[in-house]
Amino acid sequence: MSAISTDLVTARGLRKRFGAREVLQDIDLSVSAGSITVILGTNGAGKTTLLRILGLLEPADEGTVAYDGIVPGVSTVTYDASTRNPTQDPHYLPLRRRMLLAFQHPAIFSSSVLSNVMYGLQLRGVSRAEAEERSMAALREVGIAERARQHASSLSGGEAARLSVARALALQPRLLFLDEPSASLDPYGTKLLEDLLLHMRDDLGMTAVVVTQDIFEARRVADQVAFLHEGRIIEQAPRDDFFTHPRDDRTRRFVAGELLV
Length: 261
Ligand SMILES: Nc1ncnc2c1ncn2[C@@H]1O[C@H](COP(=O)(O)OP(=O)(O)OP(=O)(O)O)[C@@H](O)[C@H]1O
Prior knowledge:
One of its GO terms (cellular component) is plasma membrane. Keywords: ATP-binding, Cell membrane, Membrane, Nucleotide-binding, Transport. It comes from Candidatus Cryosericum hinesii. GO terms for molecular function: ATP binding; ATP hydrolysis activity. By secondary structure, the chain is α/β, with parallel strands linked by helices. The chain has a domain at about 1-95 and about 205-260: 3-Layer(aba) Sandwich (Rossmann fold). It is about 35% helix and about 25% strand. The chain has helices at about 45-55, 95, 115-125, 130-140, 155-170, 185-205, 215-220, 240-245, 250-255, and strands spanning about 5-20, 20-30, 35-40, 60-70, 75-80, 100, 175-180, 205-210, 225-230, 230-240. A hairpin with a 2-residue loop joins strand 9 (about 225-230) and strand 10 (about 230-240). The model has no long low-confidence stretch (mean pLDDT about 90). Adenosine-5'-triphosphate (ATP) binds near residues 41 and 44.
């Protein structure tokens, strides 16, 4: 990460409610360009919902998100809660094309593994030949090139997770959102994923926001850590500060593996 870092994503005052339940409250979050920000939190804390809002898959009820320097030639794209359906709104299309969200159970199209990786590239206007070349290279990097012609629905959970990472590698989005990327990976797959994540940051200049419940994974990959608890960001800090000098007692207890009630 460069010494002078700019914030690529700045969320202010995000709130989200499902029925009577307030799932996110007054969320402020900053994501520096070229960094890996890990969102840690307990089950049901709102991590996936926050990722979906930041990734423009879900509207917030209140608040704004500024995306700086993601769309070429456009300094800032601002999202606010008056947009009811950011997924459909053409205003956000150039922004969405520069972002990729990868979920624990990736959306898999009913076609070959290779086509699943190529799809995003072709959607963005990359020629078929180049898309195939980049996709095969990505599948080799994640270790499932021999599955390229196989039907994607026949992949195991861990292989599907690798397919998600291959999509990111092939596409090289400016901003990558990963939801519990190593949840179904074996130790070798987890190491591969974490190494690729660091490679994407260091060599490809990508910025990532990673949701996990695994504090050890956060220690290994994070530049910044945000702790989300019961819909609120309790603390956001550089990794070492977060783990060695947590400011909030709930963060200290979470990091120590204690039950938060
Ligand atoms: N579409 C929805 N409709 C109603 N409630 C929802 C919806 N999506 C999420 N929730 C609720 O919002 C809360 C936060 O869910 P979310 O998936 O964001 O949490 P999480 O931190 O990712 O949890 P986990 O670690 O268990 O995956 C949960 O109580 C969940 O039941």
